[in-house]
């Protein structure tokens, strides 16, 4: 049940981000609320507190990235909602997402070198690597 709700949230967040280039609060708040309720039902008070920490930790860790406009607010909110579902393992999702983003960046740079435009500016929807990192974590666990 937990992962079904998480994947529905991921699908909607990626869809919003691709279509509108943002992830609205009206999508993130119910996701965080659902994650906290499911965590509370599964783990009692400990699950609820761990879920709350899973929401706060991405905000604290990614605040600097948000301030310097490396990540948008929607990306931080998306990781916080993921943290509501998988607690502090959201750090693993963050690591996977950054590795996937780096690989994507190398690929884009290689394509641009072949096309002889290596330094053209590109913005990506960070929700896609975040969702891929989440799926990678849920399916494979901690294997780095």
Descriptive account of the structure:
With 144 residues, this protein is an all-alpha fold. The chain has one domain (2-140). It has five helices and no strands. The longest helix is centred in the N-terminal third of the chain and has 43 residues, at 25-67. The protein is elongated, with a radius of gyration of 16 Å.
Q: Strand pairing plus helix content: what structural class?
A: mainly alpha
Cα radius of gyration in angstroms:
16 Å
Q: Give the overall average pLDDT.
A: 92
Domain count, please report it.
Answer: 1
Shape, principal axes of CA atoms: elongated
State the helical fraction. Answer: over 70%
How many E-type strands? 0
Low-confidence stretches: none
Tally of helical runs? 5
How far do the termini sit from each other? Answer: 26 Å
Order of helices and strands: HHHHH
Sheet of most strands: none
Strand content: under 5%
Q: How would you summarize the topology of this molecule?
A:
Elements: H1 2-20, H2 25-67, H3 73-86, H4 90-114, H5 127-140
Question: Quick summary of this structure?
Answer:
With 144 residues, the protein is mainly α. It has helices spanning 2-20, 25-67, 73-86, 90-114, 127-140.
Question: Tags for this entry?
Answer:
mainly alpha, 80% helix, elongated, 144 residues
């Amino acid at each position: 049940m937990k992962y079904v709700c998480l994947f529905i949230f991921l699908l909607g967040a990626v869809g919003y981000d691709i279509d509108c280039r943002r992830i609205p609060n009206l999508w993130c708040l119910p996701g965080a609320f659902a994650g906290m309720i499911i965590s509370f039902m599964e783990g009692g008070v400990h699950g609820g507190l761990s879920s709350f920490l899973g929401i706060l930790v991405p905000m604290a860790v990614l605040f600097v990235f948000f301030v310097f406009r490396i990540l948008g607010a929607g990306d931080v909110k998306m990781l916080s909602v993921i943290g509501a579902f998988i607690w502090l393992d959201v750090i693993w999702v963050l690591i996977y997402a950054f590795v996937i983003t780096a690989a994507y960046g190398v690929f884009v740079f290689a394509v641009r070198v072949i096309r002889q435009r290596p330094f053209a500016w590109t913005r990506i929807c960070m929700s896609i690597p975040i969702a891929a990192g989440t799926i990678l974590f849920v399916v494979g666990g901690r294997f780095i």
